[in-house]
Amino acid sequence: MAILDYLTNFAMNTPLKLYNKIGFGLPLASFFMFLAEILYPPISKIPIGESPQTRFNKYVNDYNQKKKTDIEQKIAIVTGANSGIGYETTKALMLTGHIVVMACRNETLAKEAIADLEKETGIKTCEFIHLDLSSISSCRKFAAEFKKKHNKLHLLINNAGIMACPYMTTKDGIEMQFGTNHVGHFVITTELLDTIKASAPARIINVSSMAHASGDFNKEKILDKSKYQKVGNYGISKLANIMFTNSLAKKLEGTGVTANSLHPGTVYTKLQRHIPGSSSSIQQSVTRALFLSPTAGSLTTLLLALSDKVEGVTGKYFMRELEATTLSQATNQEKCDELWEFTEELIGKSEMNSDTHSISIK
C-alpha cells in the first residue's frame, strides 16, 4: 500500500507545513491531520499490495542478508517491550540475531512475554531488566545494571509511554506523562550514551506521535496542575520526544551514533487504557477493527532500527516508513536547548540530596 502511505503522509504533512509557514490555523491543520490519520488504518486493511506481516518479514530478511558480513553480536534495548509495538519490535530484533534487553516495569508480564517470544521464534536471546520510567532512581539503576552485563549497546529504542492519564505525578513529583514519556527516557539515554558511542555505528530511536502537533513546550503547563489537560499534556510529552531527539542528533554529530523519532500510527495497544470507554468490549472490538495492528505499528521503528536506507540519517522524524514534517517548534534549536536545560533542572531538583551531577555529553 505504498501509494496510500505517500498520500496519507502528504495529507498530514501539508497542513502542518502551512501552519509552520503562516503561524496560525493549528486547529484546522490538526483536524485535517486527524482525519487522514483515522482514515488510514481501515483503508490500509484492504488486501492490496504487501501486508504488514510481509513488510515486517522483509525488514528481517534484508537485515539477515546484510549481517552475513558482520559477525559482531548486536545488543538492543527496547522499553515497554512486553506488549504492542514493543513486543513486535523485540520479535524482529530477536529474529535478526540481536540480544534484546526488555526494559519493563512489570517483571511478571515481561517474563511471560519473553516466554511467548521464545516459543514464537525458537530463539532465546531476550533478557529482562527492571525499569520504571516514572522513577529517576529506577532509570539510573537500570542503566547501571545494563552496563554490568554488557559493554556495548548498538540500538536503543525508547518505545514505552503513557497516554491521557488523569493528573498524577511520578515518584519524583513530575507530571506523569512528561516524567514518564520524556524525563525517564532522557535519563536512561544520557546514562547510556558512553556505552552507545563506544558501540558505533549505533542508533537511538524515540517513539513519538502525531499528537506532538497539539503540544506546546510551555513550562507552566508541565508544572502547574491547574493547567493540566490530559490530551494536551500528552502532546507536550511527545513534542519533547522529538525535541530531545533533535538535540541528541546535534550533540552526537561525528560520533557514528544517529538519533531519529517517529509516529507509529494509530495502533491498537494498551496505550489507550486511560481513554473513557476503552475498557468496554464493544469499544475494544471497534478499535481493533479500525486501528492498526501492533505489527503494522512496528514497521517504522523497524525501518529506523534495521534498514540500510537510513544509514547515517539523523535528527529526522518519520511516519509510515517515510520522512515527515514536525511542528516547527520541534526543530527550533533555542527551544530544544531550553527543554534540555529544563529537564536537567527537574532531575536536579528531584535529587537535590544526592551526589547527582548535571547530565552532559562530552
TrEMBL record:
Record key words, sorted: Oxidoreductase
Family, per entry: Belongs to the short-chain dehydrogenases/reductases (SDR) family.
GO molecular function, one term: oxidoreductase activity
Domain of life, per lineage: Eukaryota
Lineage summary: Eukaryota, Fungi, Fungi incertae sedis, Zoopagomycota, Kickxellomycotina
UniProt organism field: Smittium angustum
UniProt xrefs under PANTHER family: PHOSPHATIDYLINOSITOL-GLYCAN BIOSYNTHESIS CLASS F PROTEIN, PHOSPHATIDYLINOSITOL-GLYCAN BIOSYNTHESIS CLASS F PROTEIN-RELATED
Protein name, per record: Uncharacterized protein
Pfam family, any one: adh_short
